Amino acid sequence: MTQRVEILAIGDELVHGRIRDTNSAWLANALALVGLEVARISVVGDGEAELVAALTGACERSDIVIATGGLGPTEDDRTRRAAARAAGVELAFDEAAWQQVLAVFRGYAPQRDVPPSNRRQAEFPRGARVLRNRWGSAPGFALTIKGCTFYALPGVPRELWAMWAAHLEPELAASGDASLRGHSLHAVGCPEALLGEALAEFMSEGGPTRVGITASGGQLTVRVVGAEWSVVQGVAASIRLRIGEFLVYEGDHSLAEEVVHKLIESGVTLALAESCTGGLLAAELTEVPGISAVLLAGFVTYSDAAKVRDLGVDAALLETHGAVSVEVAEAMALGAARRTGARAAVSITGIAGPGGGTAEKPVGTLCFGLCLDGLTETVECRLGNLGRGLLRQRTVREALVRLHRMVLRSLPK
Amino acid sequence: MTQRVEILAIGDELVHGRIRDTNSAWLANALALVGLEVARISVVGDGEAELVAALTGACERSDIVIATGGLGPTEDDRTRRAAARAAGVELAFDEAAWQQVLAVFRGYAPQRDVPPSNRRQAEFPRGARVLRNRWGSAPGFALTIKGCTFYALPGVPRELWAMWAAHLEPELAASGDASLRGHSLHAVGCPEALLGEALAEFMSEGGPTRVGITASGGQLTVRVVGAEWSVVQGVAASIRLRIGEFLVYEGDHSLAEEVVHKLIESGVTLALAESCTGGLLAAELTEVPGISAVLLAGFVTYSDAAKVRDLGVDAALLETHGAVSVEVAEAMALGAARRTGARAAVSITGIAGPGGGTAEKPVGTLCFGLCLDGLTETVECRLGNLGRGLLRQRTVREALVRLHRMVLRSLPK
Question: What is the pLDDT of residues A249-304, one digit of tens each?
């Protein structure tokens, strides 16, 4: 029997868009790993009426509801009260939970008195099972509301993760359909409609697998999910053939992880030289553990002077072709490799905007330089004026795809 | 009359957590700027039954519902059909919209035939007003559903932003309560409960202002919202006094923007030297337009060799104190300043994990070096084993707070 699961993210800052709700995506992934699929995520503010309505609706529709946030010690933390109202019970003070709050607080700030308002964190709906939080002052709880199992967890990511591992994962692993598995294929350079058409026969509802296509930052991800692993693999094999040359890699990891793993596998050392992306490529790659084995150094050469001094780019080259040119990109990559002794290097120079564009080189003009063992390759492309943030992300994606291709070529067939 | 607004984000990849829903936060912010406050955000998958249920519920509860996603050309794009079902009407082919789809597609890939499945993008619920999309192949639409104005927009961020500016913003600006305004104060280093207690009197529901506290990456943001600007400012002034020394800055911009603006204002040039954060500090700062006026260069010196070669750190210092030490952090900052001629420099060296920790220097040990006009300051702190991603973010936040403080001191009082 498939269980219906919903997530409820609570907080004015989330529903008003001042902070992105990253917990829900994390939870949905964690739930998927125990075979539970999320049917809906709702984000509501701290206002009590809306919170009670959303919480009640979710519990009426679902078997399991997991809420995050609103467990803090302040007046605007209303999850405890809203759950009590939805369940039609009172709030009751829990002495054991209060001792735990005190213990955590004293460990955190031994020199300070515990503010009395923290007592609120030890009040729970009557009948609730308190879930201990060793990593912060807000205990969670589980409560049956309208026949649904409702979990309230803190909104601080690190506490949420630890509470999930300690309490929910062991409980929910038993109720999940652990045989539901998925496989992802990632393509770049192909229009979504064309890919959708090529895969249309796999995409109608009701078959033994579900196939979806996601577009993100110019990357298309095809996801195959099904109960039978062999069927999922069979469908993935057919899809692989249809995607053809546009396929970049497969699996649930990120493109940065894919690139780092391939670098480590091939033993190719790397240096980076970034202008308009200002360290974003380095930051994405260094997010991956183990990168220190291959990344020798990165240079953020924002100014012409830095390109000359730190990468040895010829000042005349900058003068003749301009900083945003394939000639300078090539010299940056070669300079980074030479200076660090890395076998491979990637450089990026371009115009991220909002200022700096010209008729000849508008915002969105990007030049990449790549080198491996002294052989170079350069690319110029126009990504358009997407806005600084998105443009920089796309640029990094573009650089990663090309670096991936170059590293793959260096691997034994 | 306050209008009730909901957002509906559509896509399996969102509800299953493979991609974070960033559109909803963006839309909520855009709505706030025209005086409309979002009451709820719902995220649902591509399955038609759930989509129809969520869409119907949102329209029944609200005056305005804005949906993003599910307008693509593939079989799993079901927003058009779901809206038609919720409104109880049929889908009808729109020739004018089809011509627009063709025009956009031909501009994008003139050499390719338009896949017939793109025709689906020109089918709309009968009675819908088509919203032209000049930036992608998926037109949006507006439709009255159960007395609610329902807007369907594409999920691709760049198209969403452009469609908002072209169609929704002009329409909605008239219906928003443009007098609703907010003010944010950002604090670091203070426990949330303590701050909540200090501000408790401002935080109950029903007063002329609403005050909320958000914790994110160790930064506490206090947000005051109200209809009367003078009242909002008065409450903000009282709160400012209560936050005291923990206050870092005020306003709706990010800490990185705050730091860059202060650097530009003070005319202090900057160089960066990063080890464990691998370019993340540079990437955050260079996200801010105008940074090129002050940032001279950044160095990602992951290896000891890079610290010696690119920053002139004494190899004996590395040998004696280890790469993660205040001595090396200081030498890195001084080296970056000296090499680039920058007046100020910040360095970060630490252990981000998961590997590399020791009993003496566990994962989460961070050393910062700062210098301004030759005067240096170093800090060592233990942020704990938060996980690589979160730890790196916190580290960058810590560096930004300290850089901010240093730059403030250089400004004339």
Answer: 999 888 999 999 999 999 999 999 999 999 999 999 999 998 999 999 999 998 99
Q: Is the CB of residue B168 less than 8 Å from the CB of residue A45?
A: no
- Nearest chain B residue to A101 by CA distance is B193
User: Which tokens belong to A367?
Assistant: 């030049």
Q: Of B21, B72, B193, which has the smallest distance from its Cβ to A192's Cβ?
A: B72
CB-based burial label for B196 (10 Å; 0-12, 13-18, 19+): buried
pTM above 0.95, yes or no: no
Structure tokens at A276: 């308009």
- Interface mutation vs chain A, best among B7, B13, B390, most A CBs within 10 Å: B13
Strand B64-68 versus strand B148-153 pairing type: parallel
Query: What is this model's ipTM?
Result: 0.73
A188 contact partners, CB below 8 Å, separation of at least 6: A218, A219, A220, A246, A248, A397, A401
pLDDT in tens, B131-175: 998 777 789 999 999 999 999 999 988 789 889 988 998 888 777
Main-chain phi, psi angles of A141, to 5 degrees: -160, 160
- A112 with B286: Cβ contact below 8 A: no
Q: Where are the beta strands (DSSP E) in A275-383?
A: 295-300, 344-350, 365-372, 375-382
Q: Are A41 and A24 in contact (CB under 8 A)?
A: yes
Is B214's CB within 8 Å of A354's CB? no
- Measured CA to CA in angstroms, residue A63 lies from A1, A144, B113, B138 at distances of 11, 10, 47, 36
Q: Cβ contact (<8 Å) for A40 and B28?
A: no
